[in-house]
Every structure is written in structure tokens, then in C-alpha cells.
Design a protein that fits this description.
Layout lengths: L9 E6 L4 H16 L3 E6 L3 H9 L4 E6 L1 H11 L6 E5 L9 E2 L3 H9 L4 E14 L2 E8 L2 E6 L6 E7 L2 E8 L1 E5 L7 H4 L11 E7 L9 E4 L4 E5 L5 E5 L3 E5 L4 E15 L5 H10 L10
Parallel strand pairs: 1-2, 1-3, 3-4, 4-5
Antiparallel strand pairs: 6-7, 6-17, 8-11, 8-15, 9-10, 9-14, 11-12, 12-13, 14-17, 15-16
Length: 290
């Protein structure tokens, strides 16, 4: 947790392109910041100009308008540059976002006044390797998934921890997640809920068949290597967004990232448990009404 924060001088506002409410809020937030003497630039989360502005540096705050998917994209973009992210929820769950859209002005007043704190969360570094050559590398906020592609057959996944063979999973797939990701796909697959400040690596099999069923929690200094031991289609998916086809013998190597994603919070540090119980009792994705 970081509580001694620098003054905010420059802000980027990024909206999800397919959420009309997000695009409508951009102008209002921009006017608010300008009135408070803060330079701002804005656009859609995918805009090349937004991404270049982050890379150019000098950004004190990144405001993401959307849902958890928008926050994941913001995390991928901002973490290497240590830019804190304020999420305004226009989605459904909002596990990663800070505030609801109707409260954006009061929240920004707190943030501008320095009445907030920064929450640092561990990320993962994931590499796709083939015959000792690295074909791709990613920084991960929630999880990476190694599993079956478009076939219904389970895949065989030889899984090593620190070069020790843990087991060969025969399953739909294997999730390797952060504590942040423990409330995402890993939770749906039956994994435990980890407090977001923990620096652990979580392994959760998906629909294992005659394999180890339990989740495994690892120290942050551990390394996980998953080798594809099936000849039919398999894929690697990063944070539910980037999918890469895998071949027999390909390896996915996961370890703690050198980067941390940083979220701006205005609630007290116990917000996670209060938000968790409210979201678990009402699942908007399923259309629940109670």
C-alpha cells in the first residue's frame, strides 16, 4: 500500500469503445480535471494515441471507464510504466474497479485532494517456448490458461514446479493465476479466493479427469512449466484476451513478473471483503435478481 502520493498533474482518460455510457462520461471527467488545473488527454482504450501517450511518460493517473476487461487492458498498458489506474465501473462485476459511475465526481475530488491510496498487485510473466526458443511473452494481471482448443478431448499437461514434476493433468486445461485472478476464472473452476495483496501463484485444473483435483498455492519465487503432451489442438490464453495455438511439446513457463499493477483506492483497505460478499450474493452475469 502506498499512502504518500505525488501531486496529479497529467491524466489519461480511456473509455471502452463499445460502452456508450463510457464515451459520454469522458467529456465530463475531462472538464472536471481541467477546472482543477490538471492536463488531460482522452480516447478509447485501443487508440494508438492513448498507448503512445502512456509510453511517452509523465502520466500521473490513468482513468479507465468500463468493466473488468477494460481494467485488464489498462493494467497491461500501465504496469510497465508504474502508472496508477483508477477504474470507474460501467460493467457488471467490477472486481477491479473502484467506484460506480454515478460516484465518479466525488471520487475524483478525493483523488485530486490526495485522499486515496495505491494498491500494488503482483503480476505474472508468461512465456511460450518451443524447442528452447521463446515465441511470445506476456505480462499477466489475472491468469493464463493452458488447455484444449476447439476439440472436446482433454489435454495432457505435464506440470513442473521449480523443475520438479508435480503431475500430468488430464483435463480441459490448467489455470495459473495471481491472487487478483483468484476471483476470476480460477474461482469459477473451484479455486480458493486469495486476498489481492498476497504475492502467490495459484494453480487450478479445469475439469480434471482422474487427475489431481485440488488447487495448489505457490510462493511468488516459484516457477511453473507446463508441457503439452497431446497431439490434438491446445491453446494458451492470457487474461481471457490473447489466444495462441500450441503444439505437441510446446512449453508455457510462468513466474512472477518484474511489474506490478497499481490501482487507486478511496475505500478503506478492508473494501475487498465487503465488495466480495455483495458480488457473490448477486451475480449479474447470470441475471440474478436477489
Amino acid at each position: 500500500m502506498e499512502t504518500t502520493l505525488p501531486a496529479i498533474k497529467r491524466v489519461i482518460i480511456a473509455a471502452h469503445p463499445d460502452v456508450p455510457e463510457a464515451l459520454a462520461l469522458v467529456d465530463g471527467i475531462g472538464r472536471f480535471l481541467t477546472e482543477h488545473g490538471i492536463n488531460e488527454s482522452h480516447g478509447k482504450i485501443y487508440d494508438p494515441g492513448i498507448r503512445q501517450a502512456v509510453r511517452d511518460g509523465g502520466v500521473d493517473l490513468f482513468i479507465a471507464l468500463g468493466g473488468d476487461g477494460t481494467m485488464l487492458r489498462a493494467g497491461h498498458l500501465c504496469a510497465p510504466y508504474k502508472i496508477p489506474i483508477l477504474g470507474i465501473n460501467l460493467g457488471r462485476f467490477g472486481f477491479l474497479t473502484t467506484v460506480q459511475s454515478e460516484n465518479w465526481k466525488s471520487t475524483l475530488e478525493q483523488v485530486v485532494a490526495g485522499d486515496c491510496w495505491h494498491e500494488r498487485r503482483m503480476m505474472l510473466h508468461t512465456e511460450h517456448q518451443r524447442q528452447n526458443e521463446t515465441l511470445g511473452a506476456w505480462e499477466v494481471v489475472n491468469e493464463c490458461f493452458v488447455g484444449r482448443g476447439d476439440t472436446m478431448r482433454p489435454v495432457h499437461l505435464v506440470t513442473e514446479i521449480d523443475d520438479y514434476v508435480l503431475t500430468t493433468y488430464v483435463a480441459d486445461g490448467l489455470i495459473v493465476a495471481t491472487a487478483t485472478g483468484s476471483t476470476a476464472y480460477a474461482l469459477a473452476a473451484g479455486g480458493p479466493i486469495l486476498p489481492p495483496q498476497l504475492r502467490n501463484i495459484l494453480i487450478v485444473p479445469v475439469a480434471p479427469h482422474l487427475s489431481v483435483e485440488r488447487a495448489v498455492v505457490l510462493d511468488e519465487n516459484s516457477s511453473v512449466r507446463v508441457t503439452i503432451d497431446s497431439k490434438h489442438a491446445a491453446v494458451l490464453t492470457i487474461d481471457g484476451q490473447v489466444s495462441t495455438p500450441l503444439q505437441y511439446g510446446d512449453q508455457v513457463v510462468v513466474s512472477a513478473s518484474d511489474h506490478n499493477v497499481k490501482f487507486v483506492r478511496v475505500q478503506s483497505p478492508d473494501y475487498f471483503y465487503r465488495n466480495l460478499t455483495s458480488r457473490m450474493s448477486k451475480n449479474p452475469s447470470a441475471g440474478a435478481s436477489t
